[in-house]
Write a structure and sequence with these properties.
Elements (H helix, E strand, L loop, with lengths): L1 E3 L2 E5 L3 E7 L9 E6 L6 E4 L2 E5 L3 E8 L6 E11 L2 E12 L7 E3 L4 E7 L4 E6 L4 E6 L5 E6 L3 E6 L5 E6 L3 E6 L5 E5 L9 E2 L3 E3 L4 E8 L13 E6 L4 E6 L13 E2 L5 E5 L3 E5 L4 E5 L1 H4 L10 E4 L6 E4 L3 E5 L5 E6 L11 E3 L5 E6 L4 E6 L4 E7 L2 E2 L7 E5 L4 E6 L2 E6 L25 E3 L5 E2 L10 E5 L2 E2 L2 E2 L3 E4 L6 E9 L4 E10 L2 E5 L3 E2 L5 E8 L10 E4 L2 E2 L3 E5 L5 E7 L7 E8 L2 E11 L4 E4 L5 E5 L4 E5 L3 E6 L4 E7 L7 E7 L5 E8 L4 E8 L7 E5 L9 E3 L4 E4 L4 E5 L4 E5 L2 H8 L2 E4 L6 E4 L8 E4 L6 E4 L8 E4 L5 E6 L7 E6 L4 E4 L17 E2 ...
Parallel strand pairs: 2-9, 36-47, 40-47, 49-56
Antiparallel strand pairs: 1-3, 3-7, 4-6, 4-8, 5-7, 8-9, 10-39, 11-12, 12-13, 13-14, 15-16, 16-17, 17-18, 19-21, 20-21, 21-22, 22-23, 24-25, 25-26, 26-27, 28-29, 29-30, 30-31, 32-33, 33-34, 34-35, 37-38, 38-39, 41-45, 42-43, 42-46, 44-45, 46-47, 48-50, 50-54, 51-52, 51-55, 53-54, 55-56, 57-84, ...
Length: 963
């Protein structure tokens, strides 16, 4: 028996004729029944059985359905006649068209979205990068990244051209869609125990914006989107007012806001279910039992309004009910699985015919007919491998697309495809396709068969990077070749069109992406991280890495996978000022990261012991180093120590800190004695006109060591009671004003350069309390931030801004930026490829121009942009700095800057590190770290380092000689 042709290739939806001929042997002349063996899913043969007479041939048509899985198989062709058998083989390949990529990495953490139909643009808030991303509806590429502080919820004002954004700060933000101009609208709600942020906003036709207020540190049931207050912003008058609670109701809470497309109606649920009319500017309410039968037993968990507000959908755990504006029940649909309370979104389609309910973990959608009130089925929006705790439906458009935020990117779902009937779902709730991971690292331009899957798969088409990946023998996927280095996603598509994505499931060649530090000491002796793909072509492989052509002597793989490779390396020595490429070679190829980092000008380490604090005197251009018995004076020009400022013999207490008078005339040193109950203040006249004087206060209670000198010629002492020292009379005053006393009892106090304003923060206590004080008027203010544990504080040179820092051991820092009214206006966000790995160091400071906040860690110094909260640069220190002993309340800065902001002085392991920069830090070009291909392993909601890079924390120094 013979088959012609011996192999065929079918495109999806295609067919081909196969001829089978039979030859009789030993005089046999009967007929033969011919059939094909097991065919791939979606492939059929017509007729299924063919009768062929010996000496002749017959034909059958092999066809692949449009939804047939891509496959590459060898099919057995069998002929039987009675007890006689014969066989032949037919090679069968089913090819599929490339599929559009349903997942697009953006970077950071997307949390809110609005699709502008007139502009065909998706505006997505990116909390992880402090920006608003403008994404094309045509090709899903990022068209612009607009700096916006801590953005969360988003809506468009009724004018059709202005976006309003809720934030994780104490403000809402408006953005002009034509010019991208950003306007901040700060607000401090007066009635909350802890300060509010505003995660959710909806804009109404009358120019008013409803916004939820959530107390920092007190999660709502919805965690991200809900809160304990409902406030209104009148955009016409730029005024804020509180709508709810109308009394001191401890249980009032709303978890969402929803409006009609015409901006005329809004709904929300709290103690009752509320309907707002913007035309009448009125609220009406109905009992929760009315909208959540039976008897509110499961609670309202989500809601939406159609285009004109004539229909309201209310979802509970097991059903979604539809009401008119009079709250009359129109119909109810049962849900296939429990609809959870948090991270879930309900939306009507643009034409109001369908209702979409988002299910999280794994990400999927239930589709309900909003006219017949029948549940139609489910659609998958999942992206593997690990769950994303912030995944969510952002929005939909009128063209039939749903936009989901997950895994640092955008997942698209085609709403025009039929939903999968619930009866065919893979689980009791909304099902998603099982997409087995391939986890393949391949050289460029070379197809590669993945290892066999754990169990045979059926009915799935595989695509890698949009190209078909044939399946053979039901369990082996052949990964297509690629000429482009880097990661590719795998899409698994069922015969019904449902899709799941494995992010960065395959890696081609070697693709180094970024170095964790942008500035390196030229002497080497430090470490850094390198991020990328293809560093290990096989398990356990360690690549060769060069920096500026010099090989790294020590390399440790901290994370090894196709999702992202992370290598820790010892940085070799280089030339001062040299910008270097980084090269990586492994068994799957080589790759180069150009201009990866630059070497600093040559630093100097001056041997020194016992330095307690550093202060730079811009009036005399000298550095003061506080010690137990003197203040050493360094000449920055020649890096030599001048004659020290010795303490008088009568100054016998334990030295704590020092502060320079705003006019530079005096240096004030604080010491404590008798378990900090006695304060000794030494005033040293730097003009040489007067001898040093000492003032003592013996009834202080717990003076904590922090002082500040004001423009009123007074010294504030942190402790209890609040103390003020008048430098003209050298007399103390005990302040009995509660707010004033609290300022002075704060863990740390800092004054602006001119001494006109003082800020204070309580250290290492929950509540994150901060204070301000005007020495001239005595005016004071305080705010509390629930989840903050401050460890340091810095004030901008002009006093218009200050930064409080939380730097717990080993995991970097959280920076809260505040304006002069104590409004929390921004937070820092780490780039995807520059994670921190060490403990905080006291001495956070602003640059001379106020554009940069300098935050020291043990092995590096971070330069934060004070306007955007993004990292401008990270420099590795020539030796380990003196880290904060946590949780002790250290207050004396161990870092200082010169007047130009081009030299950093820091107390380090063996003395004083003097680190020159390539130029003034205010003028340095910020590093453009990649923001679209990383795996963020941290706490995106807080946008901080507190849990980021958990996979490498603690192992960061393994095998790396940093010192």
């Amino acid at each position: 028996m013979a088959v012609s042709p011996t192999s065929i290739s079918l495109a999806q939806g295609g067919s081909q004729m196969v001829t089978v001929s039979a030859t009789g042997q030993n005089g046999y002349s009967g007929s033969v029944s011919v059939s094909l063996g097991t065919l791939p899913s979606g492939v059929t043969a017509t007729p299924s059985t063919l009768t062929v007479s010996t000496g002749s041939s017959g034909s059958m048509t092999v066809a692949a359905a449009a939804s047939a899985a891509a496959a590459q198989e060898t099919i057995s062709v069998s002929g039987t006649s009675g007890t006689l058998t014969a066989s032949a083989s037919l090679g069968l390949t089913v090819t599929a068209k490339p599929v559009p990529d349903p997942f697009h990495l953006v970077g950071g953490a997307l949390l809110g979205g609005f699709y502008d139909e007139s502009r065909q643009l998706l505006f997505a808030t990116n909390l992880g990068l402090n920006e608003l991303d403008v994404i094309s509806g045509a090709d899903d590429t990022v068209k612009a990244r607009i700096p916006v502080p801590q953005p969360l919820g988003i809506d468009q004002m009724a004018d059709g051209k202005t976006l309003v954004i809720g934030t994780a700060a104490q403000e809402i933000v408006t953005v002009d869609e034509d010019t991208y101009a950003v306007t901040l609208h700060p607000h401090s709600a007066p009635n909350a125990t802890f300060s509010l942020f505003f995660p959710t906003v909806v804009a109404l036709a009358n120019g008013k914006v409803f916004m939820i207020g959530q107390e920092q540190g007190i999660d709502s049931n919805d965690i991200v989107d809900g809160g304990q207050y409902l406030l209104e912003w009148d955009s016409t008058t730029n005024t804020f007012s509180q709508i709810e609670p109308t009394s001191n109701d401890p249980i009032w809470e709303t978890d969402r806001l929803a409006r009609s497309a015409d901006h005329k109606w809004a709904v929300f649920s709290a103690d009752q279910f509320y309907l707002y009319s913007s035309d009448a500017d009125t609220l009406t309410a109905a009992p929760l039992q009315t909208v959540d039968p039976p008897q509110n037993s499961f609670g309202v968990r989500g809601y939406a309004m159609n285009g004109d507000g004539s229909k309201i959908a209310v979802a509970s755990a097991t059903e979604v009910s539809f009401f008119d504006r009079e709250f009359d029940l129109l119909g109810t649909a049962q849900l296939p699985g429990a609809f959870q309370n948090s991270r879930t979104v309900v939306k009507f389609s643009a034409d109001g015919s369908r209702l979409y309910l988002e299910y999280a973990l794994p990400l999927a959608m239930v589709v309900v007919d909003a006219n017949s009130y029948a549940t139609l089925g489910t659609m998958s929006a999942t992206v593997n491998p690990e769950p994303d705790n912030l995944e969510r439906l952002l929005t939909t458009d009128a063209e039939g697309h749903a936009y989901f935020a997950t895994h640092e990117g955008l997942r698209l779902v085609n709403l025009s495809q039929p939903p999968i009937p619930v009866s065919q779902s893979t689980s009791a709730g909304p099902g998603v396709p099982e997409c087995p991971p391939l986890q393949v690292v391949a050289p460029l331009n070379q197809a590669k068969a993945s290892q066999e899957l754990l169990e045979p798969i059926a009915g799935l088409s595989f695509y890698v990077g949009g190209q078909p990946a044939p399946v053979s023998n039901g369990s082996t996927v052949t990964v297509p070749a690629s000429s482009e280095a880097g990661p590719a996603d795998t899409e698994c598509i069922t015969s019904q069109g449902d899709t799941a994505v494995n992010k960065a499931d395959v890696s081609y060649g070697v693709d180094p992406l970024a170095m964790s530090a942008s500035l390196l000491p030229p002497g080497g002796k430090t470490g850094a991280y390198l991020f990328g793909y293809g560093f290990s072509g096989s398990s356990g492989e360690v690549p060769a890495i060069t920096v500026g052509g010099a090989a790294s002597a020590q390399i440790t793989m901290l994370q090894q996978s196709t999702v992202l490779d992370v290598a820790a390396l010892a940085v070799p020595a280089g030339s001062a000022g040299q910008t270097v490429d980084v090269g990586v070679t492994s068994s799957v190829g080589s790759g180069t990261l150009t201009a990866a980092a630059s070497y600093l000008p040559t630093p100097t380490i001056l041997p020194a012991k016992g330095i307690l604090q550093l202060t730079f005197d811009t009036h005399r251009s000298v550095l003061y180093a506080l010690k137990a018995t003197e203040v050493d004076v360094l000449n920055p020009g020649n890096l030599t120590w001048q004659a020290p400022l010795a303490f008088p013999a009568a100054f016998t207490g334990t030295v704590q800190s020092m502060a320079l008078a705003p006019d530079g005339s005096k240096l004030v040193v604080l010491a404590t004695a008798a378990a900090q109950s006695t304060a000794e203040v030494l005033v040293m006249d730097l003009t040489g006109d007067s001898p040093a004087t000492i003032a003592t206060y013996s009834q202080a209670d717990g003076v904590n060591g922090s002082i500040a000198v004001t423009n009123q010629n007074t010294v504030l002492l942190a402790g209890l009671p609040g103390l003020t020292l008048d430098l003209a009379t050298m007399t103390f005053t005990v302040e009995d004003n509660y707010a004033y006393s609290n300022i002075e009892s704060g863990g740390v106090i800092r004054a602006s350069a001119d001494g006109s304003v003082v800020y204070s923060a309580i250290l290492n206590e929950s509540g994150g309390q901060v204070f301000s004080f005007n020495p001239a008027t005595g005016a004071t203010k305080t705010e509390m931030f629930g989840y903050m544990f401050w460890t340091d504080l810095a004030v901008s040179p002009d006093g218009s801004q200050f930064a409080a820092v939380e730097a717990p051991p080993g995991i970097g820092d959280l920076v809260g930026f505040f304006n002069a009214d104590l409004q929390y206006i921004n937070a820092n966000v780490y780039p995807d490829f520059s994670p921190p790995d060490d403990s905080g160091v006291l001495g956070v400071t602003y640059s001379p121009g106020g554009k940069v906040l300098v935050v020291p860690l043990g092995d590096s110094i971070e330069l934060w942009d004070t306007a955007t909260g993004t990292l401008r640069a990270r420099l590795m220190t020539p030796e380990e700095l003196q880290v904060l002993v946590y949780p002790e309340n250290g207050v004396a800065p161990l870092l200082a800057l010169d007047a130009a902001g081009d030299t950093i002085y820091a107390v380090s392991k063996s003395g004083l590190s003097v680190i020159p920069l390539p130029g003034p830090m205010d003028e340095m070009t910020p590093v453009a770290w990649p923001a679209n291909r990383a795996t963020r392993l941290g706490d995106a909601l807080r946008g901080t380092a507190t849990t980021r890079m958990a996979a490498i924390k603690g192992a960061s120094r393994a095998g790396v000689s940093k010192r």
